[in-house]
Amino acid sequence: METGETTPVTNARGQLVIIGGAEDKEGDCTILREFVRRAGGTQARIVVMTVATGLPDEVGRTYTEVFERLGVDDVRIIDTASREDGSDPRALEAIEKATGVFFTGGDQARITSNLKGTEVDAAIHRRYAEGIVVGGTSAGAAMMPDIMIIEGDSETNPRVNVVEMGPGMGFLPGVVIDQHFLQRGRMGRLISALAQQPAVLGFGIDENTAIAISDNKFEVIGEGAVTIVDESGITHSNVGEILKDEALAVCGARLHVLPHGYKFDLQTRKPILD
Amino acid sequence: METGETTPVTNARGQLVIIGGAEDKEGDCTILREFVRRAGGTQARIVVMTVATGLPDEVGRTYTEVFERLGVDDVRIIDTASREDGSDPRALEAIEKATGVFFTGGDQARITSNLKGTEVDAAIHRRYAEGIVVGGTSAGAAMMPDIMIIEGDSETNPRVNVVEMGPGMGFLPGVVIDQHFLQRGRMGRLISALAQQPAVLGFGIDENTAIAISDNKFEVIGEGAVTIVDESGITHSNVGEILKDEALAVCGARLHVLPHGYKFDLQTRKPILD
Q1: Distance of residue B153 Cα from the nearest chain A Cα, in angstroms
Q2: Which of A30, B143, B238, B262 could form an S-S bond across to B258 if both were Cys, CB 3.0 to 4.6 Å?
Q3: Does some domain include residue A8?
Q4: How far apart are CA B219 and CA B238, in angstroms?
Q5: Does residue A87 sit within a domain?
Q6: Which chain B residues are closer than 8 Å to A209 by Cβ?
Q7: Residues from A in contact with B at Cβ < 8 Å
Q8: Cα(B232)–Cα(B192) distance, integer angstroms
Q9: Domains in chain B, number
Q10: B273 in a structural domain
């Protein structure tokens, strides 16, 4: 998965459900319902990964309750609170049997520092390549690319120093994912994240909104929209000329805003319009 | 000026300085300094229009102090608190002699309701056509187009009902201007404002940032950036198919982010790159 390429195309047979945070857990649960449906419906076996959060019991219980309410009998919580937990045989066995693995929100740096390169990480990637569904919300969404946003400032114009980038978990290479997107005014932060790697696609996912990816295409699900910034065809950027705290310029980027039901082709980098 | 055309090109000989709000008034005053310079420097005769604000004395005094500190001896405050004030002979005389007219922040609906169509409005437009500088910050920026944002929600994905549009003062037709732009997360609001009129250009101006327009070109001044959304070449929009509270889709818009020193050609709709 971690090819380092700047195309968001993978050969994995699995699916990804990448959620911009704050997904509905009490009403229709449109997004979590779709995750469960793709993971096998009432026959799904779901592992909830609480590695990102400092409140694993509480957050794990919340998702267990939702998935059980939707009819899933087999829900297990795995909390890799340290790297040692990343080779826990019980965790490896649960992932081996899982049809869906779900990463909760929290801090994406906890996901990479505790999990990246462990046996559990390898097992999830292998199972994903074989066909299971990997989902994640908020921090669990941010970690999906090979290079991820670790943290950054919201509500600012683009500057190199407003965002800290680092290795992600590599489920979807060639993109950058930001979440709570328009709700927290993160356009400047997403453009900053793309500054050093204009060939990757930027996806800004709103709260209670998700992209469900299979066969190198995604479909938008939920209440808000997904904002796509494509800098691959830009006519100018000043990133090579400025210092870290100076304002970025970008000319000629492509912008798409896609709400529920819209589809996007990762290979052609274009919305799929009927 | 109020041609209703969807091209931001005018024949006016004057200049516009359009500020995204919260411009520096205590430090270098980069933007207000540029306004004064363009209005004639220490020889400038400036009229401060406080029509937008409910605190005309306080706000008028603040700008008078800044302009005087920058060396302007002739600063007059005009407060058209009612439409009757829009034919005040003293105001008309001051505008006749002015080299610069500056609109403060406040509520842009107060500018149009109190001033639009009055003799003072006509005088400012005539003087602008003859060559003076018209500046405005925040509400004084929003009012510049022929169709303006009256009010709207920040930090939301685009929907038709998140923004209320209405007639503006028509100094710069063919554009929509939003202010406090990235600081308040207004990307969704700007795209909503463009939904019904994709041929116009959207300018999102950050705080302490301005565009200075002359000869159908602008230059960016200040700390942040100007975000330009150009929907004239979009491949798809769902605005004709959705209801007011449903999420907008826009595919294939053009996006530019221009910081201090960058220039943009309103006729070609492109950044001017050396």
Answers
A1: 11
A2: B262
A3: no
A4: 33
A5: yes
A6: 157
A7: 154-158, 182-188, 191, 206, 209, 223-225, 227, 229, 235-236, 238, 246-260, 262, 270-271, 273
A8: 14
A9: 1
A10: no
